[in-house]
Specification:
The protein is of the alpha/beta class. It folds into three domains: 46-91, no CATH class; 94-160, membrane protein fhac (Ubiquitin-like (UB roll)); 163-335, Cell division protein FtsQ/DivIB (Rossmann fold), CATH 3.40.50.11690. It is built from seven helices and 14 strands. The strands form two sheets. Strands 6-5-4-7-8-9-10-11-12-13-14 form an eleven-stranded mixed β-sheet, with no helix packed on it. A three-stranded mixed β-sheet has the order 1-3-2. 23% of the residues are buried.
């Protein structure tokens, strides 16, 4: 059997031209791509070797992050933290002592009651923020700071609230700070020398009362009690036992108190025979004198513009006299016996 030779057709000129055209396009594309990449690489301030290292570090970093996330889902960090805390506790880094500082009025036992839960606990496991939140809930504590003093001590710095006045409530007396924050109940013996504030809603008016008394600093030490009347104005009782009824409104009350301070500086009103002063009228000050006869009570009538439905600051059985505001001195005559309700 004789062998046969298969002959392929010769490549035509058209096919050859097509192959050469495709090759030229490939070379042109490679040249274009290479030149653009080279231009980009020329802008980057890294060598090719440095870029390889950066890409390798990025890949490894991503792998570490993924491993950390996977370990977090598996609870590995928590287990490691507990193991570390256990080792620290065995090495002596656990709560054995508590150092409390800055306490003057607060009962320290209340602090230790909240810290005892941390006793013998490993230092790394003590939740500083949660412990601070518990301490701030104590009535006397304005602020607190909790810190670790290695190896075995918790340091607690307390900033106490400052007692400012005594709030009279039904059946009890409560110590309050300058913001009206209630601190603790107190006995009458502990209220000596302190300002007593009374009346419904008086606790919310302590800041305004401080501003009012600050308008007349000479009189402030003489005020023994302040009563919030009808949720709108103040009656001040001085250490002499005399009562001053102020008008409604912060500005009006401040002006009246400053006017009274000037009159007292000139005429010595405090400590005199007058038992009560009523400055609710804008142009009159009513004074009540206990020994003035009832037969002269109707000699002076309060002007219509100054009449009010407020209570008089002194018992209605006492006669009164009206004097134009700003002109203190002897009364121009006994005033009417006013019976009003707050």
């Amino acid at each position: 059997m004789s062998g046969q030779t298969l002959r392929r057709k010769a490549t035509t000129a058209r096919r050859t031209a097509a192959q050469q055209g495709a090759a030229r396009k490939v070379r042109a594309a490679r040249a274009t791509t290479g030149s653009a990449f080279d231009r980009i690489m020329s802008w980057v301030p890294f060598s090719e070797e440095q870029l390889h290292r950066i890409f390798l570090a990025a890949i490894l970093g991503g792998a570490v992050v993924l491993a950390g996330v996977a370990a977090g889902y598996a609870g590995v960090p928590l287990m490691a933290e507990e193991q570390f805390a256990r080792i620290a506790g065995q090495s002596g880094f656990e709560v054995r002592r508590v150092n409390v500082r800055g306490v003057r009025h607060l009962n320290e036992l209340k602090i230790y009651e909240r810290v005892l839960t941390e006793h013998n606990r490993a230092m790394p496991l003590v939740d500083i923020d949660a412990l601070r939140d518990e301490l701030i809930r104590l009535s006397w504590v304005k602020d607190a700071r909790v810190s670790r003093q290695l190896p075995d001590t918790l340091v607690i710095d307390i900033v106490e609230r400052t007692p400012h006045a005594v709030l009279r409530k039904p059946g009890r007396l409560v110590l309050i700070d300058a913001d009206g924050y209630e601190l603790e109940p107190v006995s009458p013996a502990r209220t000596r020398g302190m300002l007593i504030v009374g009346g419904p809603g008086a606790g919310r008016q302590v800041v305004a009362l401080s501003a009012l008394l600050g308008a007349a600093p000479a009189l402030k030490p003489q005020v023994r009690e302040a009563e919030w009347i009808g949720n709108r104005r103040w009656n001040l009782t001085f250490k002499s036992g005399q009562v001053l009824a102020l008008p409604e409104g912060d500005r009006a009350a401040s002006r009246a108190l400053m006017s009274f301070a000037r009159m007292d500086g000139t005429n010595r009103l405090l400590g005199g025979k007058v038992v009560a002063f009523d400055m609710r009228a804008p142009d009159r000050i009513y004074m009540r004198i206990p020994d003035r006869g009832k037969e002269n009570q109707a000699a002076v009538t309060k002007p219509a513009a100054a009449r009010s439905t407020d209570t008089a600051p002194a018992p209605s059985a006492m006669p009164s006299a009206a004097v134009p505001a700003g002109r203190p001195g002897s009364a121009s005559g006994p005033g009417p016996n006013r019976k009003e309700k707050d």
